[in-house]
Design a protein that fits this description.
By secondary structure, the chain is of the alpha+beta class. The protein contains 23 helices and 13 strands. Strands 1, 2, 9, 10 and 11 form a five-stranded antiparallel β-sheet that branches. Strands 4-7-3-8 form a four-stranded antiparallel β-sheet, sandwiched between helices. Strands 5-6 form a two-stranded antiparallel sheet. Helix 6 runs antiparallel to helix 7. It is flat. InterPro entries: V-ATPase_116kDa_su, V-type_ATPase_116kDa_su_euka. It is found in: Membrane. It is a multi-pass membrane protein. Essential component of the vacuolar proton pump (V-ATPase), a multimeric enzyme that catalyzes the translocation of protons across the membranes. Required for assembly and activity of the V-ATPase. Its main location: membrane.
């Protein structure tokens, strides 16, 4: 797999001549193979002018019906199943007819269900009106009967001189009304239901519109009822309005319509009320049975559709993609063959030929398809065979630019160098373990999470880079062991410290001082360095020098890869006028600085490397004095300085003129167009000026991570521990965990990731990687499920 990633696959431009009777099956089989990228030979035609536009329109209509079925299935509470209920060789015409019949049946069932449900809701409201209004009339009639009985008792009784005069007048009026029907008032009434939230406004408007010449009575319904118009459950009140006169009646009816009040007929005859309630209850029972039967039939139909929808949807998408691909083919002059052109890997030649033979045999075609390789000057697409582990690293490289055909691929080295440089800035084996555990969760649930369609943008991005995060976590544990930091706390994991207190009776070794009493700590930073007064200067110097060594090594690797690119592409100009002067210039300055760092570490010298490098340019002939690290250093510096000065014009001037000369010889009499590669030799100088700044930025990122971790540990966790209070300790632990996760495991991870990305794109890939190619996108059915609906 590593060798497959180093150079892109060898590609070839192929022409296919396919008979019309086997064209559909040939394209279908090539889609299953997924190793052929078709070229559009009808780019000048609009989509409506192409041969198979009608078939694509049919597929789009079937896709619309399937979307409608899916919406109805989800609305009914069923989830689409992936069970295969139909064969993959189903005829598209039969499927179209079947989908049309099912759609018509489902639409008819929906319409009938809506009508029945509306009628049921209206009858249910009518029943509530009959019950509540009947209760009101029954109560009013009982009161009227009691009052009438009282009047009769007073009329039959003897009058007394002590009886009030008003009572006598009331009895006289009642007696007169009961004996004279012409003086009785006939009141009309309107009954119905009004939304409870509108009931107060409804009552106020009625009162104002009729100037108080009405009597309104409302009864609250405890449970919400289904509104026949909107189909939603609404809290309502039953109302009855008594009025006098047609004018008041018209006003009341208009106000009811304005407030969305549903009106229902009602009679004050008790016998008729009982008969109407019985009749409505019977109709409700019949409608309930009818609705339940219809819903059961609809659920069975939707369940059947749910079993078939995914398979049908995939089939329709395949057919649509096949016709889209056939529209990219040109028709032969005899109109008996289709001509296709496209790219395929060289290793897939036999597979494609066998696929075409199988399509010819299955189509019962008398003539086989013709496969022939075309010669072309066009640059082929870039194709790397990746797996789920290497694909994420390749995406990091492709985000900078897709590799040119047969160009050295940085993705091979990125698998190791990217997580390692991240870990250099993130080094803490406690944080690394937390990061690894989070990644382990994604790896253990890989199958389940990969089958889910929607994970969310952030979760989907994190899941896609799970193997990158795993490598970053493992390298962080490794560098954390070197730095000897576990949430900024040192441990003596590999033996006892080499240092001890200067005086055996002292208690605070961090302020009195340390002396070396044992052999050097075997692995990583000695734990005694943490917390001492010289910790920051020592670790700053160590990490600065280490970052310089890693940065120079990475830049040298990029320049060396530019040599292999040039040799592979047989470009001697890039070797002699780009690779050689760049290598000399880089190592004359930064390579020499790296050598001084290593010599200083090995010899334990106190030489000031800043002074050495500055005066190498200002006073190259002066004696070095105490800053001399080895014999002949002065003369070596003069030679390296001269080589660096010679390398600058060597990079700047020869290559552009030689390229122009080659271009003129190749295209005599034609206008000269500047080439892209002319300024490649200038890039090293510009980027070398900023190398130190980027290295400092990386060191700063690591120091920020280390210092923040130390601050959270000392100022939060230890401070809470010192109070000897359980509540304060719990609060401190919670704050420490939140700060560690939010700041160090999220924000600092992102910061170190971006710095590692910058170092790869600018300091490494920019030395050799052109990245001006384009990806190989084969026609494949495996990608249909990931694509959005066209």
């Amino acid at each position: 797999m590593t060798m497959d990633l180093l150079r892109s696959e060898a590609m070839q431009l192929v022409q296919l001549i396919i008979p019309m009777e086997s064209a559909h099956r040939s394209v279908s089989y090539l889609g299953e193979l997924g190793l052929f990228q078709f070229k559009d030979l009808n780019a000048e035609k609009s989509p409506f002018q192409r041969t198979y536009a009608a078939q694509i329109k049919r597929c789009a209509e079937m896709a619309r019906k399937l979307r409608f079925f899916r919406e109805q299935t989800i609305k009914a509470g069923f989830s689409p199943s992936t069970r295969s209920m139909i064969g993959t060789d189903i005829n598209l015409d039969d499927l179209e007819v079947k989908l049309g019949e099912v759609e018509a049946e489902l639409i008819e069932m929906n319409v009938n269900s809506e009508k029945l449900q509306r009628a049921y809701s209206e009858l249910l409201e009518y029943k509530l009106v009959l019950q509540k209004a009947g209760e009101f009339f029954h109560s009013a009639q009982s009161i009227a009967t009691a009052q009438q009985k009282e009047v009769e008792e007073h009329r039959l009784g003897d009058g007394s001189i002590d009886s009030p005069l008003l009572s006598e007048q009331v009895l006289f009026c009642c007696r007169e009304l009961s004996t004279d029907p012409s003086k009785q008032v006939n009141l009309g009434f309107v009954t119905g239901l009004v939304p409870r939230e509108k009931s107060l406004a409804f009552e106020r408007i009625l009162f104002r519109a009729t100037r108080g010449n009405i009597f309104l009575k409302q009864a609250v319904i405890q449970d919400p009822v289904l509104d026949p118009v909107s189909g939603e459950k609404v809290e309502k009140n039953v109302f009855i309005v008594f009025y006098s006169g047609e004018r008041a009646k018209n006003k009341i009816l208009k106000i009811c319509d304005a407030f969305g009040a549903n009106r229902y007929p009602f009679t004050d005859d008790v016998g008729k009320q009982y008969h109407m309630i019985k009749e409505v209850s019977g109709k409700l029972s019949e409608l309930k049975i009818t609705i339940d039967t219809g819903l059961l039939h609809r659920e069975n139909l939707l369940q059947t559709i749910g079993y078939q929808s995914e398979q049908c949807n995939l089939l329709v998408k395949k057919e649509k993609s096949i016709y889209h691909t056939l529209n990219m083919l040109s028709i032969d002059v005899t109109k008996k063959c289709l001509v296709a052109e496209g790219w395929c890997p060289v290793f897939a030649t036999n597979q494609i030929q066998n696929t075409l033979r199988r399509a010819t045999f299955d189509s019962n075609s008398q003539v086989g398809a013709i496969f022939q390789v075309l010669r072309t000057e066009e640059s082929p697409p870039t194709y790397f065979r990746t797996n789920k582990f290497t694909s994420a690293f390749q995406e990091i490289v492709d985000a900078y630019g897709v590799a040119k055909y047969q160009e050295a691929n940085p993705g091979v080295y990125t698998i190791v160098t990217f997580p390692f440089l991240f870990a250099v800035m993130f080094g803490d084996w406690g944080h690394g373990i937390c990061l690894f555990l989070a990644t382990l969760y994604l790896l253990l649930r890989e199958k389940k999470l990969s089958s889910q369609q929607k994970l969310g943008d952030i979760m989907e991005m994190t899941f896609g880079g799970r193997y990158v995060i795993m490598m970053m976590a493992l390298f962080s544990i490794y560098t954390g062991l070197i730095y000897n930091e576990f949430f900024s706390v040192p441990f003596e994991l590999f033996g006892r410290s080499a240092y001890d207190c200067r005086d055996s009776s002292c208690r605070n070794a961090y302020t009195v001082g340390l002396i070396k009493v044992r052999d050097t700590y075997p692995f990583g930073v000695d734990p005694k360095w943490h917390g001492t007064r010289s910790e920051l200067p020592f670790l700053n110097s160590l990490k600065m020098k280490m970052s310089i060594l890693l940065g120079v090594a990475q830049m040298n690797l990029g320049i060396i890869l530019s040599y292999f690119n040039a040799r592979y592409l047989r470009n001697d100009l890039n070797i002699w006028y780009q690779f050689v002067p760049q290598l000399i210039f880089l190592n004359s300055l930064f390579g020499y600085l790296s050598l001084l760092i290593i010599v200083k570490w090995c010899t334990g010298s106190q030489a000031d490397l800043y002074h050495v490098m500055i005066y190498m340019f200002l006073s190259p002939t002066d004696d070095l004095g105490d800053n001399q690290l080895f014999i002949g250093q002065k003369y070596l510096q003069i030679v390296l300085l001269l080589l660096a000065l010679v390398a600058i014009p060597w990079m700047l001037f020869p290559k552009p003129f030689l390229l122009k000369k080659q271009h003129l010889e190749r295209h005599r009499g034609q206008s000269y167009t500047p080439l892209h590669n002319i300024d490649d030799s200038l890039e090293l100088e510009a980027h070398s000026d900023f190398t130190a700044m980027r290295i400092l930025s990386s060191v700063k990122c690591f120091l920020a991570h280390s210092e923040l971790s130390s601050v959270f540990y000392e100022k939060v966790l230890l401070l809470a521990w010192g109070f000897n209070n359980v509540i304060i300790l719990i609060v401190g632990v919670v704050v420490f965990v939140c700060a560690t996760v939010g700041v160090l495991l999220v924000m600092e991870t992102l910061s170190a990731f971006l710095h590692a990305l910058q170092l790869h794109w600018v300091e490494f890939q920019n030395k050799f990687y052109e990245g001006d190619g384009y990806k190989f996108y084969p026609y494949s059915f495996s990608l249909i499920g990931e694509q959005e609906e066209i």
